[in-house]
Amino acid sequence: MASHFRSYIWDPVLIISQILLMQCIYYSFLGLWLAGVDGLVHNSRALGLWFFIRRGKQCLDFTVTVHFFHMIGCWIYNSHLPAALSWWLVNVVCIALMAVIGEYLCMRTELRAIPVNTGPKSNL
């Protein structure tokens, strides 16, 4: 019997639901972060990859997708593409950090030792 563990079957419903989930997590943590900073001055984000994507190879894909849709949302909201250099620099740094930290956490989980049954062997 063939193993179906992490099979690579094209599943667009799964991919779309993961993208939507990552968008929700991204904006939830962004909202919490902004609320916290606003509370501190009176004026983070890779965990979603680790919990819901769980594949180091897919972290960069989902990170870029999340930030691409964020850019589209900013474009629609402002009626023009963001032009500030600081906006682009912050987003590039966030993409790099989110991808690297997400890949590190996912790879750490993927490379965990698989427990092997050390009980008595049965004669077949």
TrEMBL record:
<dbReference type="GO" id="GO:0034067">
    <property type="term" value="P:protein localization to Golgi apparatus"/>
</dbReference>
<feature type="transmembrane region" description="Helical">
    <location>
        <begin position="12"/>
        <end position="37"/>
    </location>
</feature>
<keyword id="KW-1133">Transmembrane helix</keyword>
<dbReference type="Pfam" id="PF09801">
    <property type="entry name" value="SYS1"/>
</dbReference>
<dbReference type="GO" id="GO:0006895">
    <property type="term" value="P:Golgi to endosome transport"/>
</dbReference>
<protein>
    <recommendedName>
        <fullName>Protein SYS1 homolog</fullName>
    </recommendedName>
</protein>
<keyword id="KW-0653">Protein transport</keyword>
<keyword id="KW-0812">Transmembrane</keyword>
<keyword id="KW-0813">Transport</keyword>
<dbReference type="GO" id="GO:0000139">
    <property type="term" value="C:Golgi membrane"/>
</dbReference>
<keyword id="KW-0333">Golgi apparatus</keyword>
<dbReference type="GO" id="GO:0005802">
    <property type="term" value="C:trans-Golgi network"/>
</dbReference>
<dbReference type="GO" id="GO:0043001">
    <property type="term" value="P:Golgi to plasma membrane protein transport"/>
</dbReference>
<feature type="transmembrane region" description="Helical">
    <location>
        <begin position="84"/>
        <end position="106"/>
    </location>
</feature>
<dbReference type="GO" id="GO:0005829">
    <property type="term" value="C:cytosol"/>
</dbReference>
<dbReference type="InterPro" id="IPR019185">
    <property type="entry name" value="Integral_membrane_SYS1-rel"/>
</dbReference>
<keyword id="KW-0472">Membrane</keyword>
<comment type="similarity">
    <text>Belongs to the SYS1 family.</text>
</comment>
